[in-house]
Each structure stands twice: as structure tokens, then as C-alpha cells.
Amino acid sequence: MSAEVLVIGGGPAGASAALHLARAGLHVTLCEQGPRLGGALHRQPDDPAQRIRVPRAQSQRWRALSTALEASSVQILCRHMFAGIEGGGTVLLEDRASGRLVTRRPAALVLALGAVERVTPLPGWQLPGVTTVGGLQVMMKSTGQAPDGDVLVAGSGPLLLALAAQMAALGKAPVAVLERSPKLVSPSVIASLITAPAYLREASHYLLALARAGALPQHGTWVRAISPRDGRLAVTIVDRHGRDRELVVDRVALHDGLLPNQNGTAAPSNGPFVVRAGDCREVLGGVAAMADGRHAAKAVLAHLGRSTEAEPSATRVLSRERRAQAAINALYDYSGADPAWLPDETVICRCEGRTLGQLRDLLASSDPVSAREIKLNGRFGMGACQGRFCAEWVAAFIAAQRDGEPPAVSEIIGSRWPVKPVPISAFVTLPPSRPSE
């Protein structure tokens, strides 16, 4: 049997890498933590009859890739969560169906973990009924249904348009879409996207759907605070003229861009060859992720001494998508809130309920406090997410308080294994024998 390659992540990058490695004759195992392949972008519904509408080209690309993958020799393990790589090179997986741990010692490991969603802390963001735009979209893709009640979508980025248009297509447009960026479009952006016209078509489709629903984005508008009121959410909104107004809704979806998911991806010196693919390496979207999966496969083949062919088409796709994403990102304002105006009661660490005021008190101590002590003594980043959602903001607020460069996020969260919470019962069932190969 050829040396095993383990691919983590069943989205476009992981599926593409696994398929190309299998076609080269390698024994490949593809692990996906969800019940089905697809990742966040191509999330498959619980009921195939309840599929929400997505751009045709997007669904066609995934259908072709997934069909080829199913016909290949790739071993597919769904409901298997990547829990990290220990110092000796063993890869730990949690089989969520059985509640057991599985270990592997592959010759190569492809990490296609996707992106993580950013949400800027603001008063009330931790309340029930407040979610991320991406989380709400995943729910809709899984159920084929829009959320009940009045929904406000706010933040910055193209994902706001996508979610709002999909809600409108289901007959439940948001009551408002608040886009922090004051820009709408510019000739320079359109010129930059000429080589990637699919983005222009997609944006036009979304805007047309929202215009029909009377829910076009309100630019230069953002959420100042959220508070509970009679079982609903009272949202304080700041318009582009700096004026406050209030809107009472049932749900708020927030989003401030995407970052590569690099949590726990550091490769041990004596472990397998590790390569990253897709949005966890560089956030460029689904088309680029498929091309990057091919690039990752080529790197693995070269490392294992297999003959490889040049991938000029993948290189061209990545260059084109990088230019397109740079043009798109220029339209949006991902800066979020200025820490200076956030009140002390603003929750920063949602898992532990730690507030900005408590962080300020720590930093005001007469004895200098290190970034690591902020976690160990202040319990920021100490909860279930282990800082995946708050460490970035803790670092930013430290920099704002001390008027300097922010500490590295790794200084706050440290190095962890496993990288995600795993039940102790799963460890109990782990046999003490040598890991499978």
C-alpha cells in the first residue's frame, strides 16, 4: 500500500487535494467533521429537498468535484474532527459518531480547515439571538429555511449580501442590512473584476434580489449596542451622518470579515509533512480553494518523491482570484469598533463572561502583566473556544491600552493539544497500543 496521506477538511480545497492525490496512486483518507462533505461554502442540506438557492456555477463546480471524489479510491470519514498533532507526529481525530478517538501517523497531512469568521465585540453581542452571519447561513443551508422573526444583518463584507439575498429568496428578507463601509462601488473595482466577471454577476444577482425585497444595504451604518427588551433585541444603530436610531428585532447576525483558520496547525519537527490548502492558508474563496487543493497535492507528491506535472492552470486561477479578492476587500471596512468608545461592561471573552473593564483593570495594575498572564490570571481565552474567537480582540485592546503593537495571539492562547475540546471518555477508550499507520 502506498504511504497514507491524511486530508483534513471536506470543503473544496480538501476534496480537490484528496482527489488529485488518489489519482496519483496514493492511499488517501479524507476527514470531515460534519455529517457530509462540502464545507461551509457547499454545506449540504439535512433534507435534499430543502436546498437553498446558490449561484449555478458554484453548485456545478461542487457537483463535478464531489461526483469524481465519490468515484475515486479516497476513503471518506465524515463526523471525524481534527483534534491536533502531538509532538511525536501522531494525528488525533475524534470519531463523533462513536465517541472514540482515532489516531493516524500519515506520511503527509493536508490541512484544509477553511476560514474563521470575525465579529467585532460590542455591547450585547453575547446575548441569545445574536449570531454570526456565517452561522446563520450554515443553519439555512442545513435546514433550507430562513430564521423566524425579524432579522437584522450587520457588519461588513460580501457575506452580508449573500445571506440577505438567500433569505429574500426564501421569502424572509432581513428587516435591514447594515454595511459599515461607506462605499458602494467604484470604476476601479469594476475594472479589477473584469477578469473575474462571475463576482460581478453574483453581486448583481444579490442586489437585484434585495432591491425587489426592499432590503438594499444601508452603507456607512453600523451597530453601536444590543440590549434585551421584552424577549426581543433592541439595537442601537448609527447612520452615516452619525445619528443614533433604534430598531427592535428578534435576531441579529454580525460579520466583520474572514481570517484563515490556523488554529493548531503548527507542524512538529519530527511529524508528517504538513501542507495547508484553501482558505486556511489564504482566504480567496471557493474557486481558488479548489485550485489550491491541486497545489497542495503537487507539494505532497513532490515530498514523497512522486513525479508531478506542472499546474499552470491552478497558478493562473490563484493569481486571478487574489487580484479579484483584493479589489473586493477594498470596498469593505473590516476595522470594526474603536476600543476607546466601548464601555467597560462590554463582554470580550464570551465563554468566560470576561469584560473589557476587567481587562482594563488587569492592564492598569502597578505590576506589568504579560499576555500569557492575561489568560491564566484574567481567564481571557480560558473557555471552551480557547481564545479562537476572543484572543484577536484581547490583543488589540492590549495594544490600544498600552499604545503599542499588539502582542501575538499565540502569546495569549499558548500552544494546546488537543486543539479542540475532546471528551475525557473518548481518551479512556483510546488503546495504549501503537497508533495505526
UniProtKB/TrEMBL annotation:
Q: This protein's superkingdom?
A: Bacteria
GO terms, molecular function: oxidoreductase activity
Which residue ranges does the record assign to the FAD/NAD(P)-binding domain? 4-188
* Keyword Membrane among record annotations: no
Official protein name in the record: FAD-dependent oxidoreductase
- Read off the InterPro entries from this record: BFD-like_2Fe2S-bd_dom_sf, FAD/NAD-bd_sf, FAD/NAD-binding_dom, Metab_Enz_Cyan_OpOx_G3PDH
Keyword line: Oxidoreductase
What Pfam families would the database entry show? Pyr_redox_2
